[in-house]
């Protein structure tokens, strides 16, 4: 039964290759389409022939997934959209071998020929009889992992045998279950197929299911058939014609997805009810730090297993901010502390077991951490490129984890040098280069956090032997000085590339696995003392400036009030088609017609402002857009366009949460209505409905002002 079919526009001639790239996304990263899934794990891959009535052939070759993973997509080609995302531990999690896949396909083949000819016909499609030879198939055994959530009943991971028939343009998903002897066998329910075909000059993608009456939806791993025919089909159609390759790794490629799903849910339940005294969004920051903590805890858990130790790793979080990540890691048994230049209100709520220190970090021989296992840089700003250096010089066994956000060089802001990459990708490559130049094997992964900057970089081991520490530190010093002398030059320009820089060039974005032996011919005499500390004295390079303790407000709020009012009036005048604004009060508060003006892009608004005004705004974070958003009463900025806010629509929106309603009650009538004073038609709302004061007689003293006056 065909659930749905969609015609594709393919101006880039990407099909049918694009179809297999889209299938690879659904195979390797099903969670991007089905939000109730955590991911999928590939257990084994192989190839075989489709059985015929009298001829049954098992797989010619079957192989398990290697330790480094394996690209998916059209056979013989790497997927442009997705990588396996399974990481080096995927093979260890799987208990399915190549022999198991071989045996499984033998049983499936016999069953198809002897007992399930309808399934065989569904699997082969209408082209089977016209082919002189049985088509070769690609077999994939995968485990689909549901997301652990209290909203859905806990569903166990499900195994599927995926059969790709490239010659016929189809891929079939066969659910598996264990029989009484523990052997995997194909279920007759929940079998579906994706097809791509070309007809009369047009490409189509279809979704079909075998025996609709046997489809049993659990709402998680197996959604309703309508979801397959609508949601999944539309996503596959879009992916198939997208000529886009991701610059980044798949999410959670270095840790167990199943373990992550379970631990994240446990920690989320444990820390979700924290009282949040900061002005930042509690939901974003709590869940983000829970996700980062989950990742680190699993990374460290797997590291202990690899090393055969049980002692939990120690850590220092440099630039710890609100300290929640330190609090979670400490609560979960890891000894550590956080350091930040500015104390936060929430620090006092954690208790004495969470060690947080107020202080600045200036990279030097005085800011080393020789007894610490891991250094953490979670959005650590100006310290981000320094953390690999500090870790390398702290001890040979010190490792690091950084999650870059803002773009800083060793001194000042990072200057772009390659227009062919996004600024974010170029900065990540710079931090990778720093890690490699400091002698680390570098790894990259993508976290599942509510942020656009979610790529983390990890240095777990060294590219050189401990006996080469002093020689290696000389190479680090050369690299630091090269960045200082040529901050905008290309790599190697103006100085000879060091050994670690050569390693960085050779490794690119991939993990580096070569070790610099540092033989006698490459090291000065007498510098090969085992474990000798690096000769770092004083400041490593001049010019570094740690963040100021008191953050300067740069959100346009510190601009003079008359300057802000002037810009607001000028922009409003532009939107109201140049009408002269009435500076007197409107006598009628219940106007039926009201000029809401037009809309202009931010660029069009900026073009009408004088250069001096724009320059003044540019010195603030966000500039013109921030000023307009701050004046929420007057303007609405949507998708880069500016509108006059119509408060009739605001009152028709859904009621806000209780917390926001109480806040609105506190500020009700505490500010003069801008429209009542300046709009040529006055305020669109009657005085009784408007949250702002229609004249000074309606003004109330704000609750915040009362509290401040009552404070001792």
UniProtKB/TrEMBL annotation:
Subcellular compartments: Cytoplasm
Xref: PROSITE patterns: ZF_C3H1
Enzyme Commission number(s) from the entry: 2.1.1.211
Zinc finger (C3H1-type): 668-697
Pfam families named in the record: AdoMet_MTase (PF07757)
Transferase recorded as keyword: yes
InterPro entries with a match to the protein in the record: tRNA_uracil_MeTrfase, Znf_CCCH
This protein's UniProt keywords: Cytoplasm, Metal-binding, Methyltransferase, S-adenosyl-L-methionine, Transferase, tRNA processing, Zinc, Zinc-finger
Keyword Kinase: no
Region Disordered, annotated ranges: 48-95, 482-511
Limits of the C3H1-type domain: 668-697
Low complexity biased stretches: 495-505
Catalytic reactions of this protein: uridine(44) in tRNA(Ser) + S-adenosyl-L-methionine = 2'-O-methyluridine(44) in tRNA(Ser) + S-adenosyl-L-homocysteine + H(+)
Top-rank taxon, per record: Eukaryota
Family: Belongs to the TRM44 family.
Entry function: Adenosyl-L-methionine (AdoMet)-dependent tRNA (uracil-O(2)-)-methyltransferase.
Name by which UniProt lists this protein: tRNA (uracil-O(2)-)-methyltransferase
Source organism per UniProt: Mesocricetus auratus
């Amino acid at each position: 039964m065909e659930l749905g079919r969609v015609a594709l526009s393919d101006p880039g001639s990407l099909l049918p290759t694009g179809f297999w790239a889209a299938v690879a996304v659904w195979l390797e990263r099903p969670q991007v389409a089905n939000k109730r899934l955590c991911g999928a794990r590939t257990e084994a891959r192989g190839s075989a022939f489709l059985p015929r009535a009298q001829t049954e052939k098992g797989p010619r070759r079957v192989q398990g997934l290697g330790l480094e993973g394996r690209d998916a997509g059209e056979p013989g080609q790497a997927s442009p959209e997705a990588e396996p995302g399974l990481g080096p531990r995927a093979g260890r999690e799987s208990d399915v071998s190549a022999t198991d896949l071989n045996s499984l396909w033998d049983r499936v083949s016999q069953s198809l020929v002897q007992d399930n000819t309808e399934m065989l016909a569904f699997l082969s499609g209408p082209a089977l009889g016209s082919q002189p030879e049985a088509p070769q198939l690609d077999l994939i055994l995968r485990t689909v992992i549901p997301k652990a959530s209290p909203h859905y009943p806990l569903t166990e991971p499900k195994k599927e045998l995926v059969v790709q028939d490239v010659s016929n343009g189809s891929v079939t998903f066969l659910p598996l279950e264990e029989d009484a002897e523990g052997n995997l066998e194909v279920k007759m329910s929940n079998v579906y197929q994706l097809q791509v075909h070309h007809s009369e000059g047009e490409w189509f993608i279809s979704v079909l299911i075998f025996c609709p009456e046997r489809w049993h939806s659990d709402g998680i791993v197996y959604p309703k058939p309508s979801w397959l025919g609508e949601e999944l089909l539309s996503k596959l159609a879009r992916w198939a014609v997208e000529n886009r390759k991701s610059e980044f790794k798949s999410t959670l490629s270095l840790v167990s997805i199943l373990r992550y799903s379970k631990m994240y849910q446990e920690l989320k339940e444990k820390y979700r009810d924290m009282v949040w005294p900061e002005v930042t969004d509690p939901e974003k920051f709590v869940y983000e730090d829970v996700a980062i903590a989950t990742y680190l805890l699993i990374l460290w858990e797997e590291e202990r297993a690899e090393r055969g130790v049980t002692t939990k790793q120690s850590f220092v979080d440099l630039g710890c901010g609100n300290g929640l990540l330190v609090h979670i890691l400490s609560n979960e048994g890891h000894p550590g502390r956080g350091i930040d230049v500015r104390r936060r209100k929430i620090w006092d709520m954690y208790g004495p077991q969470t060690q947080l220190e107020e202080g600045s970090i200036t990279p030097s021989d005085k800011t080393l951490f020789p007894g610490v296992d891991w250094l953490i840089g979670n959005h650590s700003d100006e310290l981000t490129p320094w953390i690999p250096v500090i870790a390398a010089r702290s001890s040979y066994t010190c490792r690091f984890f950084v999650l870059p956000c803002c773009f800083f060089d060793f001194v000042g802001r990072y200057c772009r040098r390659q227009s062919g990459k996004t600024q974010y990708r170029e900065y990540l490559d710079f931090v990778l280069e720093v890690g490699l130049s400091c002698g680390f094997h570098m790894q990259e992964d993508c976290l599942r956090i509510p942020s656009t900057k979610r790529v983390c970089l990890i240095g777990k081991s060294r590219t050189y032997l401990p006996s080469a520490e002093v020689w290696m530190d000389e190479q680090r010093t050369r690299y630091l000085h090269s960045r200082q002398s040529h901050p905008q030059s290309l790599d190697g320009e103006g100085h000879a590339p060091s050994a670690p820089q050569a390693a960085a060039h050779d490794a690119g974005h991939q993990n580096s696995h070569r070790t610099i032996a540092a033989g006698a011919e490459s090291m000065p005499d007498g510098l090969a003392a085992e474990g000798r500390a690096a000769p770092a004295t004083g400041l490593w390079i001049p010019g570094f400036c740690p963040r100021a303790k008191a953050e300067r407000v740069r959100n346009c709020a510190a601009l003079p009030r008359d300057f802000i009012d002037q810009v607001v009036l000028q922009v409003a005048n532009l939107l109201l088609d140049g009408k002269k604004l009435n500076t007197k009060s409107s006598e009628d508060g219940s106007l039926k017609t009201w000029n809401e003006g037009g809309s202009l892009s931010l660029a069009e608004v900026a073009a009408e402002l004088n250069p001096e005004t724009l320059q003044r705004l540019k010195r603030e974070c966000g500039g013109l857009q921030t000023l307009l958003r701050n004046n929420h009463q007057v303007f609405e900025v949507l998708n880069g366009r500016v509108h006059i806010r119509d408060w009739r629509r605001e009152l028709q929106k859904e009621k806000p949460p209780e917390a926001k309603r109480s806040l609105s009650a506190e500020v009700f009538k505490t500010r003069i209505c801008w429209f009542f004073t300046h709009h040529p038609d006055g305020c669109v709302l009657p005085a009784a409905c408007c949250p702002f004061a229609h004249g000074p007689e309606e003004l109330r003293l704000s609750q915040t002002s009362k509290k401040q006056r009552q404070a001792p």
